[in-house]
Amino acid sequence: MMFDQLELLDRQLFMAINACHSPLWDTIMWYVSETWVFVPLFAYWFMMVYKRYGSRKLFILLGFLGLMIILTDQTSNRTKHAIKRYRPTHNLEIKDKVHIVNAYKGGKYGFFSGHSTNSFGIAMLLFLIFSKEPMWFRYAFFGWAAITAYSRIYLGVHYPSDIFVGFVVGLFWGWMIYLLIQFTFKKRFHETVEV
Asked: Which residues have CB under 8 Å from 41's CB, separation 6+?
């Protein structure tokens, strides 16, 4: 009974968010949801790592970042195919009411969001890595992740619960990879990667 109420609330919240659209926001959210749009931002972040830590440590960080993305993607994809919860765009009860952009409907299953998991995992890892930077700069990582995650509801391919679970799982993997970096390099890179 409680699960049914939560699912109903999740659907109602989705419909309320998805209903707030305009041609301008359709274009903005379409591009926000595309990873390549943020390449200059990532280049800037990686340049900061290079300047602070050097090329060797940048490549090490990129390796761990790649590992985290593999873990977040696999966690999300395996859960999607195990749970088999239809995306709003594939849910027979509401799919005709869902506002979509550029005929994009995503894959069949949506629980939970890979975009949300990846972006919040990256945000968490960078938040911890850049421990000496001002807080506004560190929280900007989460701002980027939140906008990316929100775009998935706007585009009609995820429920808020898909985003929330992706958020939690992303934070978990970001924290785990940070701890792995600390454990792996604590003797040689203790001053470089702050606890």
From this structure: 144
- What domains, with CATH codes, occur in the chain? 2-185 (1.20.144)
Give the residue among 138, 160, 139 at the shortest CA–CA distance from 149.
160
Is the per-residue pLDDT at 125 higher than 60?
yes
DSSP state letters, 88-127? GGG-TTTGGG---STT----SB-SS-HHHHHHHHHHHHHH
CB burial of residue 49 (10 Å; 0-12, 13-18, 19+): buried
Please write the tens of the pLDDT for every residue from 68-86.
999 999 999 999 999 999 9
Residue 46 clears pLDDT 90, i.e. is over it: no
Using alpha carbons only, give the angle 142, 132, 170 rounded to the nearest 5 degrees.
Answer: 30
pTM: 0.88
